[in-house]
Amino acid sequence: MNPAIAPLLLAQAPPQQAPSLFDNLPIMIIIGVIILLLGVAVLAMSYNYLRLWFQAFVSNVPINPLSLVGMSLRQVNPKTILEAMIRAKQAGVGSDPTTGITIRRLEAHYLAGGNVPRVILAIIAAHRADIDLDFDRAAAIDLAGRDVLDAVQTSVNPKVIDCPDASNSTKTTLSAVAKNGVELKIRARVTVRTNLSQLIGGATEETIIARVGEGIITAIGSAQDHLQVMENPDRISKAVLNRGLDAHTAFEIVSIDIADIDVGEQIGARLQADQAEADTRKARAWAEQRRADAIAHEQEMKAQVQANRANVLLAEAEVPMAMAEAFRRGTLQTTGPSGNGSAG
């Protein structure tokens, strides 16, 4: 190109405009909104974690703020773990770093599906009642499906069970018969408390009710007279308690109290009357059978007589025939007065 023409071409070209800030405005708005939302989320999370960390700090429960974030990532509720740890710390339980209550052990129990708050409340209640219950046993009871807090409360304040239990049975009383045949209807109340050492794998309340009912019926059945039972109901309680009915159960029987005794039917007399009626029907049946046998034998004898008569008639009918046959053959002999026979 000619150097003289280049300045003229540059002078004729349109001037280039500088890039404007408004050209990238939508993209900048979107980026700003995203940054704002991320900032709000970070601030909210930081606020929650800082609040929990500060609550733990003032409660003398040291914890790393990053541990709170790790709990959230492991699907663990940090608030539940920290509140349980603070309760245990303030109550002075589980201070042993090896077998006691630690954040790591609480988190492990939470991940196993346990109820961390009720376990801690149960340990605190047991500590206040001077009951030996450590975290391992409480966690095992909780994971076994038992309500550990209710078990501790029942161990402190015994509960009363009705025998029979009207809520699970249509009967409201136990029926037992003494040796004199008189029926007694009894309603008992059993006071039990939890045996924490046998709570895992131990039998439940239904077994206690069944065993107590069996013991009461056995005790009444061994009595000679129903009046002895009504005069001294405590003998039933003592006899049942001495059998050790709470073995291998989750409860310990404190007492068995007879709440009510009613006299029922004369079972012995009714059974004797039924037996006498049955014997009468049996005797009638035997007599009727013997009568039928006699009638049958009589008919057999009559038939035999008729058969014998028929045989006699047959024999009598054969005599003329034999005589006629003898005449035809000329072998018939007659006997004269002198006794000598002669041919006819």
TrEMBL record:
Transmembrane region(s): 25-50
Subcellular location: Cell membrane; Membrane raft
One GO term describing the cellular component: plasma membrane
Main location: membrane
Signal peptide span: none
Alphabetical UniProt keywords: Cell membrane, Membrane, Transmembrane, Transmembrane helix
InterPro entries: FloA (IPR022853)
Membrane association type: Single-pass membrane protein
Domain of life: Bacteria
Keyword hit for Transmembrane: yes
Function of the molecule: Found in functional membrane microdomains (FMM) that may be equivalent to eukaryotic membrane rafts FMMs are highly dynamic and increase in number as cells age. Flotillins are thought to be important factors in membrane fluidity.
Family that this chain belongs to: Belongs to the flotillin-like FloA family.
Binding partners and assembly: Homooligomerizes.
Protein name per UniProt: Flotillin-like protein FloA
Organism, as annotated: Aeoliella mucimassa
Gene from which the chain derives: floA
